[in-house]
Amino acid sequence: MSIKVKDIMKRFNVSKDKVKQINSMQLFLVDSYQFGRILVSYTTIIGLFIEDKWYITSDRYSSTTTRQTNKFIKSTPFAVERVTEDKLRDMVNFRYRGY
């Protein structure tokens, strides 16, 4: 399954300049009005950027997502904290509600 920038634009209701595909992978940085800066694998939010720190799910998806996530973590200059999928979902929902 190949996801394109236009798919991410539609999924998160953002313009093209708000989506950056990372190294031709199915991994995207999205600056979303609803959630702030997020890390998206295929069309799933797997990370959230808050106050100079990435919160990235520690849950496993496909081997491709795991590989791509690990590459991203090694390449980012920001601190990274791995969190459970439940905690990430709570953080995303908290941001979505505007708190």
Structure description:
The protein has 99 residues and is an alpha+beta fold. The chain has one domain (5-96). Helices cover 33% and strands 32% of the residues. A six-stranded mixed sheet has the order 1-2-3-4-5-6. The longest helix has 13 residues, at 63-75. The protein is globular and about 30 Å long.
Descriptors for this entry?
99 residues
Helices and strands, with pairings:
Layout: H1 5-12, E1 19-21, E2 27-32, E3 36-41, E4 44-50, E5 53-57, H2 63-75, E6 79-83, H3 85-96
Parallel strand pairs: 5-6
Antiparallel strand pairs: 1-2, 2-3, 3-4, 4-5
> Could you give the order of strands across the largest sheet?
1-2-3-4-5-6
* Low-pLDDT segments: none
Percentage of residues in strands: 25-35%
Question: How helical, in percent, are the residues?
Answer: 25-40%
Q: How many structural units, i.e. domains?
A: 1
Q: What is the CA-atom radius of gyration, in angstroms?
A: 13 Å
Please trace the helix and strand order, writing H or E for each element: HEEEEEHEH
Question: What's a quick, concise take on this entry?
Answer:
The chain is α+β, with helices and mostly antiparallel strands and 99 residues long. The chain has helices spanning 5-12, 63-75, 85-96; strands at residues 19-21, 27-32, 36-41, 44-50, 53-57, 79-83. A hairpin with a 2-residue loop joins strand 4 and strand 5.
